[in-house]
Amino acid sequence: MDLNNLAEKDRVIFETAREDFQEKHYYQAVKKIDFIQANYEPITELIMLEAACYFELKKVDTALELIQSLADLKVPTDFELKYLVKILLEEGILVQTRLALIANDQITSKEDWQSYESAENEGKKDNVLEYEMITKKLTYIGGENPDKQQMILQTSQKLPWQLFVKAAKRVLSDPIVWQVVKSHLLATLMDGKLDENIEFAWVDDNTYQINPKLLAESDYGASFAKLDYEVRQKWADKDPVIFENIETIISELSRNMFPFFDKIIKRPKEFLRAIEIEVLGLTGEESQAQLEPEMKWIKKLLAANQYFNF
Q: Is it the case that residue 310 has pLDDT exceeding 70?
């Protein structure tokens, strides 16, 4: 949702909240934003204005929680970007800062990049031992339990980009590491537009050469979109409960399919039927032999996913 979804009276309240912010009446602005937001799905402009208020109130942890609740790092204006960068850099979160600048390249200024680069350079001088520890943990993430792996992934966001890339490349080439971890790291390199070939050990036990930037620019998710369409057509109106269950299952499986959806979802309708049978027990007239390729993939994906709930 965006500001266009606001009722007229709420739009007026939002404008007064912005005036409060300009006049440094931050708590007053927060109360107004909370009042509006209670009646709507999350709206980026509201979340970012509230985050800016908390930043100015020196409550950076709260501001960070707010921006981490955003669906993505894309923001509408340079005001939101300014505070997005300020909050992330205040917490030393360098990787996400870089991704935010790239995601908002049309409104990113030279000063924004300079702030990021200065923070990176200062970190390389002042945080050498911390960066070495984080890099080592990320590099050997495959030896940790799932909960620890999630913590390591979060902490790795503090690394300078080149150190993050170096460690991520080693993880992506390791066939032992959980696929969901590698999918997370690959998606980060794609968002960061890394333009070089890297090795990626995938769930089919093969290793591929991938260019994250080119992959991000490709139509790699087309077959997944077709599967989602089939699910909606069949179940969204017919049985919302089954629809929600299947959507959840597909979301979980997608973490292991990423980014080679086309290698697995060659027949979207049949893939959906295989999910219905294998996971939900919704048997039908067709024989399992007709769905054998899909059934094999689903079993493999479920086995790969059972130990890691990301």
A: no
